[in-house]
Specification:
alpha/beta, six-stranded parallel β-sheet, 16% strand
Length: 210
Amino acid sequence: MRKDARKRIEEIGLVPVVIMDDVADAVPVANALKAGGLNVMEIALRTEAGLDSIEEVAKKVPEVLIGAGTVLSLDKAIGAMERGARYIVSPGFDEIIVSWCLEHNIAVFPGCVTPTEITVAIGMGLDIVKFFPANMYGGKEAIQELSGPFPNVRFIPTGGIDLSNLKDYLVPQVIAVGGGWLCPRKDILEKNFESITAVCAKSLEIVKAG
Protein backbone atom coordinates (compact mmCIF):
# COMPACT_ATOMS: atom_id res chain seq x y z
CA MET A 1 0.00 0.00 0.00
CA ARG A 2 2.87 2.34 0.77
CA LYS A 3 4.41 2.03 -2.70
CA ASP A 4 1.04 2.34 -4.42
CA ALA A 5 0.26 5.68 -2.77
CA ARG A 6 3.73 7.03 -3.54
CA LYS A 7 3.44 5.98 -7.17
CA ARG A 8 0.00 7.51 -7.61
CA ILE A 9 1.08 10.84 -6.10
CA GLU A 10 4.21 10.97 -8.25
CA GLU A 11 2.26 10.18 -11.42
CA ILE A 12 -0.22 12.99 -10.77
CA GLY A 13 2.30 15.53 -9.50
CA LEU A 14 -0.26 17.53 -7.50
CA VAL A 15 -1.82 17.07 -4.07
CA PRO A 16 -4.87 19.21 -3.22
CA VAL A 17 -4.96 20.10 0.47
CA VAL A 18 -8.64 20.20 1.39
CA ILE A 19 -10.28 21.65 4.50
CA MET A 20 -13.81 20.35 5.00
CA ASP A 21 -16.35 22.19 7.13
CA ASP A 22 -19.35 20.07 6.10
CA VAL A 23 -19.22 16.33 5.43
CA ALA A 24 -21.97 16.77 2.84
CA ASP A 25 -19.46 18.55 0.60
CA ALA A 26 -16.85 15.78 0.69
CA VAL A 27 -18.11 13.76 -2.26
CA PRO A 28 -18.87 16.79 -4.48
CA VAL A 29 -15.36 18.10 -3.81
CA ALA A 30 -13.79 14.74 -4.63
CA ASN A 31 -15.76 14.63 -7.87
CA ALA A 32 -14.74 18.21 -8.70
CA LEU A 33 -11.09 17.33 -8.24
CA LYS A 34 -11.50 14.19 -10.33
CA ALA A 35 -13.20 16.19 -13.09
CA GLY A 36 -10.14 18.44 -13.14
CA GLY A 37 -7.86 15.46 -13.62
CA LEU A 38 -6.77 14.92 -10.01
CA ASN A 39 -7.75 11.62 -8.45
CA VAL A 40 -5.94 12.37 -5.21
CA MET A 41 -6.79 14.56 -2.23
CA GLU A 42 -5.45 15.28 1.23
CA ILE A 43 -8.15 16.12 3.74
CA ALA A 44 -6.63 18.14 6.56
CA LEU A 45 -7.72 17.15 10.05
CA ARG A 46 -8.23 20.75 11.09
CA THR A 47 -12.01 20.57 11.49
CA GLU A 48 -14.53 18.25 13.09
CA ALA A 49 -15.63 17.16 9.62
CA GLY A 50 -12.20 15.84 8.64
CA LEU A 51 -12.41 12.18 9.62
CA ASP A 52 -16.00 11.74 8.50
CA SER A 53 -15.15 13.37 5.17
CA ILE A 54 -12.32 10.89 4.64
CA GLU A 55 -14.74 8.05 5.25
CA GLU A 56 -17.30 9.48 2.82
CA VAL A 57 -14.78 9.82 0.00
CA ALA A 58 -13.23 6.42 0.67
CA LYS A 59 -16.63 4.74 0.45
CA LYS A 60 -18.27 6.70 -2.35
CA VAL A 61 -15.38 7.81 -4.58
CA PRO A 62 -12.89 4.95 -4.13
CA GLU A 63 -10.97 5.83 -7.29
CA VAL A 64 -9.68 8.96 -5.53
CA LEU A 65 -6.56 8.35 -3.46
CA ILE A 66 -7.57 9.84 -0.14
CA GLY A 67 -5.06 10.90 2.49
CA ALA A 68 -5.15 12.57 5.88
CA GLY A 69 -3.23 15.80 6.44
CA THR A 70 -2.35 17.86 9.51
CA VAL A 71 -2.01 14.61 11.45
CA LEU A 72 -0.62 15.63 14.82
CA SER A 73 -1.04 12.46 16.90
CA LEU A 74 -0.95 8.70 16.55
CA ASP A 75 -4.63 8.53 17.49
CA LYS A 76 -5.49 10.76 14.54
CA ALA A 77 -3.34 8.67 12.21
CA ILE A 78 -5.00 5.46 13.32
CA GLY A 79 -8.45 7.03 13.13
CA ALA A 80 -7.81 8.29 9.59
CA MET A 81 -6.62 4.89 8.38
CA GLU A 82 -9.63 3.19 9.97
CA ARG A 83 -11.86 5.59 8.03
CA GLY A 84 -10.21 4.74 4.72
CA ALA A 85 -7.19 7.04 4.33
CA ARG A 86 -4.39 5.64 2.17
CA TYR A 87 -1.56 7.90 3.31
CA ILE A 88 -0.62 10.21 6.18
CA VAL A 89 0.81 13.73 6.06
CA SER A 90 1.99 15.79 9.02
CA PRO A 91 3.29 19.37 9.15
CA GLY A 92 6.30 18.35 11.21
CA PHE A 93 8.29 15.23 12.03
CA ASP A 94 6.73 12.94 14.65
CA GLU A 95 8.76 9.80 15.20
CA ILE A 96 5.82 7.95 16.78
CA ILE A 97 3.55 8.56 13.79
CA VAL A 98 6.27 7.72 11.28
CA SER A 99 7.23 4.50 13.09
CA TRP A 100 3.63 3.31 13.23
CA CYS A 101 3.03 4.05 9.55
CA LEU A 102 6.18 2.23 8.44
CA GLU A 103 5.35 -0.73 10.67
CA HIS A 104 1.96 -0.99 8.95
CA ASN A 105 3.25 -0.33 5.42
CA ILE A 106 1.47 3.02 5.18
CA ALA A 107 2.83 5.89 3.11
CA VAL A 108 3.74 8.79 5.38
CA PHE A 109 5.08 12.22 4.44
CA PRO A 110 6.24 14.18 7.49
CA GLY A 111 7.21 17.83 7.29
CA CYS A 112 11.00 18.23 7.19
CA VAL A 113 12.73 21.51 6.35
CA THR A 114 16.10 21.29 8.11
CA PRO A 115 19.11 19.03 7.54
CA THR A 116 18.61 17.55 11.00
CA GLU A 117 14.98 16.62 10.34
CA ILE A 118 15.84 15.15 6.95
CA THR A 119 18.69 13.15 8.47
CA VAL A 120 16.31 11.66 11.04
CA ALA A 121 13.79 10.84 8.31
CA ILE A 122 16.45 9.08 6.24
CA GLY A 123 17.56 7.16 9.30
CA MET A 124 14.03 5.80 9.65
CA GLY A 125 13.93 4.72 6.03
CA LEU A 126 12.10 7.61 4.39
CA ASP A 127 13.11 9.17 1.09
CA ILE A 128 10.11 11.48 0.51
CA VAL A 129 9.20 14.30 2.88
CA LYS A 130 6.83 17.24 2.94
CA PHE A 131 8.51 20.67 2.74
CA PHE A 132 6.23 23.04 4.64
CA PRO A 133 5.71 25.95 4.62
CA ALA A 134 7.70 26.07 1.40
CA ASN A 135 7.47 29.82 0.91
CA MET A 136 8.77 30.57 4.40
CA TYR A 137 11.68 28.12 4.30
CA GLY A 138 13.32 29.15 1.05
CA GLY A 139 11.11 27.62 -1.61
CA LYS A 140 12.63 25.94 -4.63
CA GLU A 141 16.10 27.30 -3.89
CA ALA A 142 16.15 25.69 -0.44
CA ILE A 143 14.98 22.37 -1.84
CA GLN A 144 17.72 22.42 -4.45
CA GLU A 145 20.36 23.29 -1.85
CA LEU A 146 19.19 20.47 0.41
CA SER A 147 19.45 18.01 -2.45
CA GLY A 148 23.24 18.50 -2.34
CA PRO A 149 23.82 16.55 0.88
CA PHE A 150 20.60 14.58 0.41
CA PRO A 151 20.58 13.56 -3.29
CA ASN A 152 18.16 10.67 -2.82
CA VAL A 153 15.46 12.62 -0.97
CA ARG A 154 12.42 13.89 -2.83
CA PHE A 155 10.11 16.65 -1.63
CA ILE A 156 6.43 17.58 -1.61
CA PRO A 157 6.51 21.38 -1.17
CA THR A 158 3.34 22.91 0.27
CA GLY A 159 2.54 26.41 1.47
CA GLY A 160 2.53 29.68 -0.45
CA ILE A 161 2.17 27.97 -3.82
CA ASP A 162 -0.48 28.79 -6.42
CA LEU A 163 -0.90 29.14 -10.17
CA SER A 164 1.49 32.09 -10.26
CA ASN A 165 4.53 30.18 -8.98
CA LEU A 166 3.66 26.50 -9.45
CA LYS A 167 6.04 26.19 -12.40
CA ASP A 168 8.96 27.32 -10.22
CA TYR A 169 8.62 24.16 -8.13
CA LEU A 170 8.69 21.72 -11.05
CA VAL A 171 12.28 20.66 -10.43
CA PRO A 172 13.72 17.11 -10.31
CA GLN A 173 13.86 17.08 -6.51
CA VAL A 174 10.08 17.54 -6.26
CA ILE A 175 7.84 14.48 -6.53
CA ALA A 176 4.61 16.49 -6.32
CA VAL A 177 3.39 19.95 -5.31
CA GLY A 178 0.69 20.33 -2.69
CA GLY A 179 -1.53 23.17 -1.63
CA GLY A 180 -4.90 24.68 -0.87
CA TRP A 181 -5.02 26.73 -4.07
CA LEU A 182 -6.26 23.60 -5.85
CA CYS A 183 -9.34 23.47 -3.66
CA PRO A 184 -9.94 26.79 -1.88
CA ARG A 185 -11.97 26.62 1.32
CA LYS A 186 -14.03 29.57 0.11
CA ASP A 187 -15.06 27.71 -3.05
CA ILE A 188 -16.07 24.70 -0.99
CA LEU A 189 -18.18 26.79 1.36
CA GLU A 190 -19.83 28.52 -1.59
CA LYS A 191 -20.22 25.18 -3.40
CA ASN A 192 -18.35 26.59 -6.36
CA PHE A 193 -17.23 23.18 -7.50
CA GLU A 194 -16.80 24.18 -11.15
CA SER A 195 -14.12 26.67 -10.11
CA ILE A 196 -12.26 23.92 -8.27
CA THR A 197 -12.36 21.75 -11.38
CA ALA A 198 -11.07 24.61 -13.52
CA VAL A 199 -8.09 25.46 -11.33
CA CYS A 200 -7.15 21.78 -11.04
CA ALA A 201 -7.24 21.39 -14.81
CA LYS A 202 -5.12 24.51 -15.31
CA SER A 203 -2.61 23.41 -12.69
CA LEU A 204 -2.36 19.97 -14.27
CA GLU A 205 -1.62 21.59 -17.62
CA ILE A 206 1.28 23.49 -16.05
CA VAL A 207 2.67 20.31 -14.47
CA LYS A 208 2.42 18.33 -17.71
CA ALA A 209 4.10 21.13 -19.63
CA GLY A 210 6.92 21.05 -17.10
